[in-house]
Specification:
23% strand, 7-stranded mixed sheet, single chain, binds inosinic acid, alpha/beta, 7 strands
Length: 201
Amino acid sequence: MKIVFATGNEHKLEEVRAILSDIAEEIVSMKSAGIDVEIVEDGKTFEENAMIKARTIAQYTDALVLADDSGLEVDYLNGEPGIYSSRYMGEDTPYPVKNQAIIGRLQDAKEQERSARFVCAIAAILPEKDGVRKELCVRGTFEGFIAHEIAGGNGFGYDPIFYVPECGCTSAQLTPEEKNARSHRGDALRKMRALLEKEGF
Ligand code: IMP
């Protein structure tokens, strides 16, 4: 089976391959599948945005399409940056600047008020069966706290400020395997794999 994953982010694709390789022979990005389309992510939730991406890509391929939408919710900031995580402070602002800004906005927060989570919604559009393409959607989460300092060189985005209490370090200090075992994307992908197995994949 072939899966087209609606992303251009190689980090994400590697995480997806690590978890779904046993149910799919080939997992390719939309670009490798020859699909070059502008996607307008104007949903109000992670789930809506994931489904918008999946439905857009499914117009161009008969293969199983997966799309994710993810982000960081900081409780002290009422859930910001949330669905706007990649656009927070502008798409082109470097992550060290975004990360330092979040740490700065939490300077008056008490320790227990620094809670945060990564959220990932994954939507799937299945290949056509009996004239219909079934849609599935799952959510995964990764609970942690905003660190006091930037630390670690693995991962991407907000990983260097995402402190994982049970590991005693940030998610940017975990190996890819350690992160996959706990992450929001890993959680969502495992839930999606279970649903796809139920569908006979
Ligand atoms: P998306 O590509 O529209 O899902 O945007 C996700 C954004 O959320 C990324 O650009 C990052 O800023 C942030 N994000 C999502 N997952 C992670 C993660 O695993 N580590 C660090 N940042 C993440």
